[in-house]
Amino acid sequence: MNPWHDIDPRQKTPDTLDCVIEIPRGGRLKYELDKVTGLLRLDRVLYSAVFYPANYGFIPQTYCDDSDPLDILVLGHHEVVPMCIMTARPIGVMQMIDQDEEDDKIIAIHEHDPAYNHLRDISELPRHTLNELQRFFEDYKALELKKVRIERFKGCSDALSIIEKGFKLYDETFYRGGERINPVVHAVEAATRTPSMQARMEAAKRAAAHLEAPETQES
Questions:
Q1: Structural domain includes residue 217
Q2: Which of 27, 33, 72, 198 has its CA 20 to 30 A from that of 20?
Q3: Which residues bind Mg(2+) 2 (predicted)?
Q4: Cα separation of 31 and 64, whole Å?
Q5: Residues forming the annotated binding site for Mg(2+)?
Q6: Using one digit for the tens of pLDDT, what is the confidence trace for 38-94?
Q7: Same domain for 148 and 187?
């Protein structure tokens, strides 16, 4: 099972969806989904003395121009374990430029957290909460000498439009002739378009190894 492809986030109410958390609130380890295996990979330890201000993950069955699923920050009082499925209600979006590429972050609340589940739009959050989110993403790569710029915060309707665009782009990318293509095959194809030669080789090797692995026989 690959949580990016095999979890349907659209089975909830019209204003909620399922997301998968990679990094718990308060964490300093940058976990991310390995798109070929569906397992969690430790990408790096944050260089700066900061921690994630919310549970951070992705929305399954979405796709963005950076070849990743759509990112989501889920506000709540408590951290959750990595790879936890959370029911979230999108309330806004933080539009960000990371290394000259658009990198939108959907802002949501945990539907089952009584301290937050009354919120319907990002405009209802304290300004300080938005300042914390902005400052974290502006600072967390500073010691890596990488530039991140926060463009603006937008409300719920804009967030929902971005999510719908992510669903549509996923369907266009992973379905051909009405049938879903093998995600591993897509990973091999995507690897050839990766700008970094080293990253391209590593992605291709992982995808090829996954394709060549013998299938487990059912007993």
A1: no
A2: 198
A3: 71
A4: 19
A5: 66, 71, 103
A6: 999 999 999 989 999 999 999 999 999 888 999 999 999 999 999 999 999 999 999
A7: no
- On whether residue 218 sits in a domain, the answer given is no
On whether the CB atoms of residues 63 and 166 are closer than 8 A, the answer is yes
- Residue 12 and residue 97 in one domain: yes
* Residue ranges of the binding site: 30, 44, 56, 66, 71, 103, 140
Q: Which phi and psi angles does 36 have, rounded to 5°?
A: -80, -50
- CB count within 10 Å of CB 31 equals 19
Kindly report, residue by residue over 151-180, the tens digit of the pLDDT.
Answer: 999 999 999 999 999 999 999 999 877 788
The 8-class DSSP code of residue 166 comes to: H
Half-sphere exposure of 49 (CA within 13 A, CB side): 0
For every residue of 63-114, DSSP letters joined together read: --TTSSPEEEEEE-SS---TT-EEEEEEEEEEEEEETTEE--EEEEEETT-T
Q: Report the largest interatomic distance among the alpha carbons of the chain, rounded to a whole angstrom.
A: 57
**105-110 and 70-75 strand pairing:** parallel
d(CA 63, CA 59): 9
